[in-house]
Task: inverse folding
């Protein structure tokens, strides 16, 4: 009986030790923004963070990100987002100012991008990046 | 004898598990300052803010280049005190683009305005979590 209690206490101590070492991951301000696609009469836009999308728990996984494609005289930047309802938005542009934005992205960035008008694809009208401590996993 | 051997192996496995969990915290030089906000300056590390004890601290920057360079940096310390600055120069954008997940960021506002008088990004090994 005494041995059994000792065994339980040992297991409890081990559990607490392992739990305590992982606690810091969950402290601090956190904003794991999920992917949202919105629109009004004149524009459609998508927002979300890479960490929020990557670690979303839906059966229909969210996605968001941008791609930079460069040749010697030409660049093409595109951004893509898919929300948990399966709705998607893609924008693309050959303007170098948008390539600039992708260069500033990290593994945890929050992305905002939009197109003029309503639809699921179009020319990028805006790309904004946020790199904040609250976005870290 | 067999029971003793089992116990010994169990203890060894447990020891390795515990040691490997704590390795990153103890290896190398580490400096992850928490967020500090003054009247015209603010600074702190991304890791220091994210992994702080409370749920208030924040530091980071938003940037775009759609209608020219635009950077908005903000910081909030543990007491809730905040400071923000806006930069519209190419150099501000270049600095903001250098921010990584584990940067240490410092910025200042000047002349009673909200314009960024400086924005410094430190990317050093000792700022990693």
Result:
């Amino acid at each position: 009986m005494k041995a059994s209690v000792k065994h339980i206490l040992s297991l409890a101590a081990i559990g607490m030790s392992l739990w305590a070492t992982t606690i810091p991951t969950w402290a601090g301000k956190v904003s794991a923004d999920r992917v949202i696609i919105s629109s009004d009469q004149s524009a459609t836009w998508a927002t979300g963070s890479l960490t929020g999308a990557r670690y979303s728990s839906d059966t229909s996984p969210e996605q968001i990100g941008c791609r930079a494609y460069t040749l010697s005289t030409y660049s093409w930047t595109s951004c893509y987002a898919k929300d948990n309802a399966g709705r998607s938005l893609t924008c693309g542009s050959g303007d170098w100012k948008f390539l600039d934005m992708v260069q500033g992205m990290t593994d945890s960035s929050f992305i905002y991008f939009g197109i003029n008008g309503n639809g699921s694809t179009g020319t990028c009208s805006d790309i904004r990046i946020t790199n904040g401590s609250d976005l870290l996993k | 004898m067999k029971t003793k051997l089992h116990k010994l192996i169990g203890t060894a496995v447990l020891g390795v598990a515990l040691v490997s969990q704590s390795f990153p915290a103890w290896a190398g030089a580490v400096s992850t300052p928490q967020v500090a906000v003054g009247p015209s300056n603010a600074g702190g590390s991304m890791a220091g803010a994210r992994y702080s004890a409370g749920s208030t601290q924040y530091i980071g920057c938003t940037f775009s280049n759609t209608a020219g360079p635009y950077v908005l940096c903000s910081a909030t310390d543990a007491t809730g005190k905040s400071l923000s600055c806006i930069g519209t120069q190419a150099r501000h954008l270049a600095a903001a683009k250098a921010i990584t997940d584990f940067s240490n960021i410092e910025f200042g506002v000047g002349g009673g305005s909200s314009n960024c008088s400086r924005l410094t990004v430190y990317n050093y090994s000792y700022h990693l979590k």
Observations:
- The mean pLDDT of chain A is 86.
